[in-house]
Amino acid sequence: MKIIRAKNYEDMSRKAANLISAQVILKPDSVLGLATGSTPIGIYQQLAEWYKKGDIDFSEVTTVNLDEYYGLTPQHHQSYHYFMQHEFFDHVNLSPEHTFLPDGMEQDHEKECTRYTALIYALGGIDLQLLGLGHNGHIGFNEPSDYFSTDVHLVNLTESTIHANQRFFASADDVPRQAYTMGIRTIFLANRILLAVSGKDKADIVRTAFLGKVTPTIPASILQLHPDVWIIGDEDALSEIPKGAVV
Ligand code: GLP
Asked: Would you say the pTM of this structure is higher than 0.85?
């Protein structure tokens, strides 16, 4: 696991965008696993800026998103479809047929989980998976549990996640209680994983997840076992990681 220290949010975004950019430049038909949340917004802006300058071309890239709220239409302003469209897809030359997210409106859970899992495997797996980090150690929407999940599944969101995400909704009552998410195995099979993290409020969970025990009660801790993980964090998020820590 490589831990890269960035000065601040902008620097974190630029460093993370550099890794994604290198992936796409070296392998133009890469499959990128993408994430939502407030953390990656700066990364998407940086990539869009480089695209506009002609430095990066997404025409052959395919993207698969980690998760989507259950029951939100793609047009709903808090759906991850809407987020991706407005924060990233609208600003680069990704082909719309090459961007995928779980279908939050599919009520047949088994059908949707099977479809999305099969789609990812049919693409040949993920070259680079971008992740954020929840305050309780969740990745995608894989909440703390007594086992590691496998493939795409429907999860019940924890109170802590509903609370953390209510800032985007009118009230906590409006936050969906369930979501479709890639499982830990789906994420773990990515060739390379890039986790971006920012802010003092994430410092404790960064230390617990990456210097503590590997346990499904902290889902992100499993990343300690992956052969190619890059944690890019700003000073605040990495403030509890001793300088020179061997991880
Ligand atoms: C949501 C997403 C995660 C994201 C997390 C952290 O729950 N499902 O993929 O990593 O929030 O979000 P933020 O970056 O806003 O702290």
From this structure: yes
